[in-house]
Amino acid sequence: MTLENPNVFTHLHCHDETSILDGMTKISELPSRVKELGMSCIAQTNHGSLAGSYEFVKQCKKDGVKPICGIEVYFAEDRTIKEKDELDNNYYHLILLAQNNEGLKNLFKLNSRAWEDGFYHKGRIDDRLLEEYGDNLLVTSACLGGRIAQLFEHGNRSLAERKILYYKDLFPRRFFLELQTHNLPEQKHLNAFLLEMSRKFDIPAILTGDCHYLRREDGVERDSIHELLLGVQTGKTIADEKKFTFDGRHHWVKSPQEVLADLEAENLPLELLTNTKYVADMCTGEYFLDKKDHMPKLLGVDAGKELEKKAKWGLVKRFGSVEKVPQEYKDRLSYEIAMIKQMGFPDYFLIVEDFISWAKQNKVPIGAGRGSVAGSLVAWALGLTAKACDPIKAGLYFERFLSPGRFSMEITEYKNLEIDKNNLLW
């Protein structure tokens, strides 16, 4: 059989480079490859992370491909229990897809809560969180590592059925049973069970590739690049027989025709393929619609005036008295403050100055100043950079740090600053 329209299939389970030490597909290459294969939509479902979601959406828009933001969350029946469960597992997998921007917000909330109060080996969610933040989300049963799959594989068929019915009720017409074709006996066993459940309870089933790399040559063989990546993840060499491996399994981004061939080889119904288009059509592909500056603002204070006052007195402190401040420094400070005000950064400078000041008072080590921030006299006057980092004496340009032609919020960084969050008030 051949597909007249390859666009009837969408990859709904796909890991990229931001699925750390697990996926290796570059975000910059994924959408264009999908388009080349005749598909118009692609989902991102990285393990326990949404870190690459904005870059993913931006790249998809650039390449004319519809994005679906998703995540493969880590799941536990009770995220507050910090020990192995009755199946001797620490966590399971579950696929969540955002139907729209509101759904993406719920994904962020779910994943934040997972790492905040569900951490045990991984940041885990549970059904209580899904009940709280499940609106505008589509859910699939995930891979062999899913809770439903593991219950079934451990002989708990009735509990697996109960879990399926629970999700069917919690996500009406938004829950799907996920089948895969990786030529594993346990996968084929699970596929037969899921198809039976699909017919019995009228729950749509889909086929996914669980993609971890872009092309066949990137994985499959034991000495492939992806196998090396898994070796780094597990701390083992590719020669180690005990190393976690995808050896022989097909986890590349397949064409719809290749997916169809897999379907026919395992005698699975065509609807598993076409149902993926149905799922994709339930998602708008529109995310980050309310992207804006969320930088905190100082309350009851004119941040511009406060910054100017602190910077001027900081300069006096550097030189010892008002009279000793050279005119060149006064002129440079006035110029920088005007630019900072124009670009709307006074609050930002004052917030950074606040926690750096706190760190110094509490003997928390900080650096001399990272990167181009050394070019700012205001940062030097506020004590954000070390005394030795005098930008005028060193001949450093403020514009390398901040200028209207190079607008960015990523300016003053203290990546290695460790502060007890219970003692730091924001």
What features would you describe in this structure?
The protein is α/β, with parallel strands linked by helices. Helices cover 40% and strands 10% of the residues. It is built from 15 helices and eight strands. Strands 1, 2, 3, 4, 5, 6, 7 and 8 form an eight-stranded mixed β-sheet that branches. β1 (41-47), α2 (53-63) and β2 form a beta-alpha-beta unit. The longest helix has 17 residues, at 101-117. The chain is elongated. The chain starts with 29 loop residues before the first helix and ends in a 32-residue tail after the last helix. 38% of the residues are buried.
Spans of at least 5 consecutive residues with low confidence: 409-426
In round numbers, the mean pLDDT is 89
Derived from helix and strand composition plus strand pairing, the structural class reads alpha/beta
Helices and strands, in order, run as HEHEEHEEHEHHEHEHHHHHHHH
Shape: elongated
Intertermini distance: 62 Å
Binned, the helix content reads 25-40%
Radius of gyration: 27 Å
Count of DSSP-assigned helices:
15
Largest β sheet strand count, sense and barrel closure: 8 strands, mixed
Q: How large is the share of residues in beta strands?
A: 5-15%
Please provide the count of β strands.
Answer: 8
Task: Describe the protein's topology.
Layout: H1 30-36, E1 41-47, H2 53-63, E2 66-75, E3 92-98, H3 101-117, E4 119-120, E5 122-125, H4 127-133, E6 137-140, H5 147-153, H6 157-170, E7 175-180, H7 185-201, E8 205-208, H8 225-234, H9 256-265, H10 271-281, H11 303-319, H12 327-342, H13 346-361, H14 377-382, H15 391-394
Helix pairs in contact: 5-6, 11-12, 11-13
